[in-house]
Specification:
Layout (H helix, E strand, L loop, with lengths): L3 H25 L5 H27 L9 H17 L3 H25 L5 H21 L4
Length: 144
């Protein structure tokens, strides 16, 4: 029998990586500082790479991918565009991405607790995603 918690945790991580890539894509062309642009580009690549690994595991478990909810994507888009219209600075971008990272870390810890019977591979992937988010958040502090 397939471990339901494993699949659920992988799906939530999948959704998280997609949300992160989408959020970075939305602001990347607005960033002025080259080092910050490089930081976001590298983080986007880390999210994509982990997302590909998650997709492979979901296929192995014969499960579909999970897209971020329409509501989550819509709210993110609205907040990003409103804030960027009022102040399109790198500081605003750093603030938006930091908020997203913090929400992601909070959600991922919730899912680790909720899907406690997930296998160790899935938990490890989730913890790797948490580390990517925390590292990005830490690195963006210089731009706040």
């Amino acid at each position: 029998m397939e471990n339901k918690d494993t699949i659920c945790l992988l799906k939530e991580c999948d959704s998280g990586t997609k949300m992160a890539v989408s959020s970075i894509d939305e602001v990347l062309d607005k960033v002025q500082a080259a080092p910050m642009k490089q930081l976001l580009t590298e983080s986007r690549e880390h999210h994509e790479k982990l997302g590909n690994e998650i997709h492979s595991l979901l296929l192995k478990h014969q499960s579909d991918e999970k897209e971020p909810t329409v509501m989550a994507k819509g709210m993110s888009w609205l907040k990003t565009n409103m804030k960027m219209t009022m102040d399109g600075s790198d500081s605003t971008v750093a603030d938006l991405i930091t908020d997203g990272c913090n929400m992601g870390v909070k959600s991922l810890h919730k899912y680790l607790n909720q899907y406690s019977d997930a296998d160790n591979t899935s938990k490890s992937i989730c913890n790797r995603l948490v580390k990517i988010e925390e590292e990005l958040c830490k690195d963006l502090r210089a731009y706040l």
